[in-house]
Design a protein that fits this description.
The structure holds 2 protein chains of 2 kinds. Chain A contains 6 helices and 7 strands, in the order H-E-H-E-E-H-H-E-E-H-E-E-H. In chain A, strand 2 and strand 3 form a beta hairpin. Chain A is elongated, with a radius of gyration of 20 Å. The mean pLDDT of chain B is 85. The radius of gyration of chain B is 19 Å and the shape is elongated. In chain B, the strands form 2 sheets. In chain B, strands 1-2-3 form a 3-stranded mixed beta sheet. Chain B has a 3-stranded mixed beta sheet with strand order 4-5-6. Classes of the chains: A alpha/beta, B alpha/beta. The interface between A and B is large, with 49 and 46 residues.
Chain lengths: 155, 156
Amino acid sequence: MTQDEFQDPLENYDPPSYSDPLEEALAEQLVTEIQATPYATVNQETPISEALGKLVGDDIACLLVADDDGKLVGVFSDRDVLNHVALEYDQVKNQPVSSVMTPNPVYVYQSDSAAAALSVMAVSGYRHVPVVDLKEHITGIISPQRVTQFMNQYL
Amino acid sequence: MGLRENTQTEPVKTLNLREPILVEKSATIRQCIEKMREGELGCVVVVDSAQKPVGLFTEAILRHVLLESPAVVEETVETQMADSFPWCRLTDPIDTVLEAMELKNHRFVVVVDESERVAGLAGQKGLMEYAAEHFPQEVMVQRVGTKPFPEQREGA
């Protein structure tokens, strides 16, 4: 095949077009462009009372729960407090947080698009989306407030 | 129109508003928690006899009061509700809600009708759903489980 006969495999590629800078930013930028730190973690054996104290002390709505290797195993959020702790506090306060956390949360990789994180919130209904690296170690958490901060840069 | 322009021109009523849980001031926090659990919602709106909002009790407030004293659940919601809370009208632009959530870190915005009675609740999830509708491809490929790739071969 001569150079004249070369056919560019991308000649029919139609790059995506966006209606405005916000759509472009969400589609083209990575999750890492959304603020994902600081974040707070607890070990799965942490007592519920201590985890609740951390939520209150740090004034945050969600803790990431990790195993001994630092891998994500669950989240402990305001919703878990409402559903499993609020009316049962005295009975459960010394139990490990793993007994009331939400296990196996949906997460995104650092290499996912910003829109992917937003879609997890919309489709799965989780307000807090953990961010992990390729070895599934925790690198951050994305909250709706952080997404709206990101979006407001382009409004 | 793009997402940015839509948030500035489309009214709050186009969002997927949640049906609010309404309680009176005399309700106990225990009753509020039970209603929040049943309704799978992170707050209750405290209203007066005319169904006008006078306060908001949220999961965030619950978290704080619970640590101070678990016995607080037997008190009336009036003692712990936030009497200053974000609200907007059905006809306000959507970026009103965005601003309340970003700048003031509010999770819920109470939406009122022309009579200032509670008409709905704009939440972070509704806002995310609204924005995600502009990215159907991302939504369509959204995985349901936690693994982004199959762990076993499919097919023969």
